[in-house]
């Protein structure tokens, strides 16, 4: 089945809209390199669009009615938005769900050490990464350090032009004969992904003056030379590490112990960029899955009316199995649905179950884009192409569909009808060649409620690499598709 390239379907007006939307999307990528930063951005955008915080309404005992817009945040890493529709929530919602975490390096709890004249931060990689892709890149440090008194110190180093950046060293090619014989999975080991954060020993200012005074006193008292040497050796011990700690103390008022209660993420430094001479693509960190998160958020904010209650769910921890209090397997979403139904006057355990079972969902996640350089890894008839429009994956998982959601034919036909009526350009795909590998999304978790769910999103080249590529047209078309879904889906 041949389909037009999405670029060929656009009017001059739409081509301009594509670039405007892409610029806004790139700004989101720059502002949201961690889950916390994404949530801050999304909440600000939601409040500007008239959304109110759900917990505030609960405290005040306010009721919700048709057209009301609310949001809820959980642990600063997951967020859900609801816009109340005409019909009772027990008849189901139209849900867009994506994740806002991305592969990265996490700083360990006891990370700072000195070796060979360098100060390092010890890291633990997060999600599926090719470890060798992370060496010799300029890296930035984002996150929070929470002090014992509860003070939260925000860290963002490496993004401004006058900021320092960090890096992971690699062995020079001249000495790499043995290294190059290793498997790609072993070329760089996980424990070797420690970032270099300094190399200058601390300078002691006032302590130097005290040292001079002490020396004079020492000579006067005739102390032994070996005692002086011991003192100097103690001063020189871990002087580079001490220098880094001194900077952290002066700049952020944090101590080494504050790393124990910190969440610091190491990500590629630099802004999202237009790619290609024709500026048709976006090259940036974290597009899996922030491209779908942003498109979902924008669709949610832009569609003002729908018969059913609309919902946009953006969660954490998908890259490591959707676990924990902020992942899709937590009760956060279900609890917030119950709270919203309580404020609409519909709450009962049975009504919550009916609402979830009757809902329609697009599990908004990325798909692999066909790469001609590695054509043998794909089934060309069943793969997504950059520029091919929004992507639908009937199932994900691995090999024999293990770990997948598998959307039913009736639901796919319903979505097809909506998209054809709205003239949305879309394509269908599988992740790659059967038996080669696979991957999962949050779709199967929502499907456990009995709702209709299908994976949908944007094709990504270089998926899970520090820099991923998408087509501007696909990003824009996906947002249009999400809008059509919110307006028209009901089964």
Task: Give descriptors for this structure.
2 domains, 6-stranded antiparallel β-sheet, Aminopeptidase i, Domain 2, 9-stranded mixed β-sheet, single chain, alpha/beta, Aminopeptidase, 491 residues, globular
- The count of strands amounts to 22
In whole angstroms, the N-to-C terminal distance is 27 Å
**Derived structural class:** alpha/beta
Radius of gyration: 26 Å
Q: Tell me the number of helical segments per DSSP (H or I, 4 or more residues long).
A: 13
Average pLDDT across residues?
Answer: 93
Number of domains: 2
Please identify, by name, the CATH architecture of the largest domain. 3-Layer(aba) Sandwich
Strand order of the largest sheet: 1-2-3-13-4-14-20-16-18
User: What kind of sheet is the major sheet?
Assistant: 9 strands, mixed
CATH topology of the largest domain: Aminopeptidase
Q: What is the CATH homologous superfamily assignment of the largest domain?
A: Zn peptidases
Q: Which CATH C-level class of the largest domain is it?
A: Alpha Beta
What's the overall geometry? globular
Helix content: 25-40%
Proportion of strand residues = 15-25%
Instruction: Enumerate the spans where pLDDT stays under 50 for 5 or more consecutive residues.
Output: none
What does this structure look like?
By secondary structure, this protein is an alpha/beta fold. It has two domains: 6-102 and 285-488, Aminopeptidase (3-Layer(aba) Sandwich), CATH 3.40.630.10; 104-203 and 236-268, Aminopeptidase i, Domain 2 (Roll). The chain is built from 13 helices and 22 strands. It has helices at residues 12-31, 35-48, 54-60, 184-187, 206-221, 225-236, 239-252, 287-302, 332-343, 349-357, 409-421, 443-447, 472-488, and strands at residues 52-53, 69-74, 78-83, 93-99, 104-115, 118-126, 139-146, 152-157, 195-198, 262-268, 273-275, 281-284, 309-315, 360-364, 367-368, 390-393, 397-398, 426-428, 438-439, 452-457, 459-460, 468-471. The strands form five sheets. The protein has a nine-stranded mixed sheet, with helices on both faces. Strands 8-7-10-5-6-9 form a six-stranded antiparallel sheet. It starts with 11 loop residues before the first helix and ends with a helix. The mean pLDDT is 93.
């Amino acid at each position: 089945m041949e389909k037009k390239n999405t670029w060929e379907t656009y009017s001059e007006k739409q081509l301009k809209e594509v670039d405007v939307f892409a610029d806004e999307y790139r700004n989101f990528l720059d502002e949201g390199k961690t889950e916390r930063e994404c949530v801050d951005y999304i909440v600000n955008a939601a409040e500007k669009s008239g959304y109110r915080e759900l917990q505030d309404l609960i405290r005040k005992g306010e009721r919700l009615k048709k057209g009301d817009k609310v949001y809820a945040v959980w642990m600063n890493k997951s967020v859900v938005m609801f816009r109340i529709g005409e019909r009772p929530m027990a008849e189901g919602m139209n849900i867009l769900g994506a994740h806002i975490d991305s592969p990265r390096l996490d700083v360990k709890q006891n990370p700072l050490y000195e070796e060979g004249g360098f100060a390092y931060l010890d890291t633990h990689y997060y999600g599926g990464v090719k470890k060798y892709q992370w060496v010799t890149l300029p890296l930035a440090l984002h996150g929070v350090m929470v002090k014992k008194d509860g003070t939260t110190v925000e860290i963002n180093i490496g993004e401004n032009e006058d900021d320092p950046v960090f890096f992971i060293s690699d062995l020079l090619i001249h000495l790499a004969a043995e290294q190059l014989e290793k498997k790609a999975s072993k070329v760089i080991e996980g424990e070797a992904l420690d970032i270099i954060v300094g190399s200058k020993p601390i300078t002691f200012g006032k302590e130097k003056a005290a040292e001079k005074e002490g020396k004079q006193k020492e000579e006067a008292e005739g102390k032994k030379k070996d005692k002086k040497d011991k003192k100097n050796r103690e001063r020189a011990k871990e002087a580079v590490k001490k220098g880094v700690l001194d900077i952290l103390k002066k700049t952020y008022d944090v101590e080494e112990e504050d790393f124990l209660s910190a969440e610091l993420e190491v990500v590629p430094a630099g802004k999202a960029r237009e790619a290609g001479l024709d500026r048709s693509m976006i090259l940036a960190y974290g597009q899996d899955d922030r491209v779908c998160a942003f498109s979902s958020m924008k669709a949610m904010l832009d569609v003002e009316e729908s018969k059913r209650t609309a919902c946009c769910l953006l969660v954490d921890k998908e890259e490591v199995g959707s676990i924990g209090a902020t992942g899709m397997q937590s009760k956060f979403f279900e609890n917030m649905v119950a709270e919203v139904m309580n404020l609409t006057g519909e709450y009962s355990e049975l009504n919550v179950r009916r609402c979830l079972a009757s809902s329609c969902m697009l599990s908004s996640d990325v798909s692999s884009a066909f790469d001609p350089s590695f054509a043998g890894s794909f089934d060309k008839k069943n793969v997504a192409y950059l520029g091919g429009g929004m992507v639908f994956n009937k199932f994900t998982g691995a090999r024999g569909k293990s770990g997948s959601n598998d959307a039913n034919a009736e639901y796919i036909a319903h979505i097809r009808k909506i998209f054809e009526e709205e003239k949305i350009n879309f394509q269908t795909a599988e992740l790659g060649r059967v038996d080669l590998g696979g991957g999962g999304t949050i779709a199967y978790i929502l499907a456990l409620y009995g709702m209709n769910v299908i994976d949908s999103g944007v094709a990504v080249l270089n998926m899970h690499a520090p820099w991923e590529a998408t087509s501007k047209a696909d990003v824009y078309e996906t947002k249009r598709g999400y809008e059509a879904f919110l307006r028209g889906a009901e089964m």
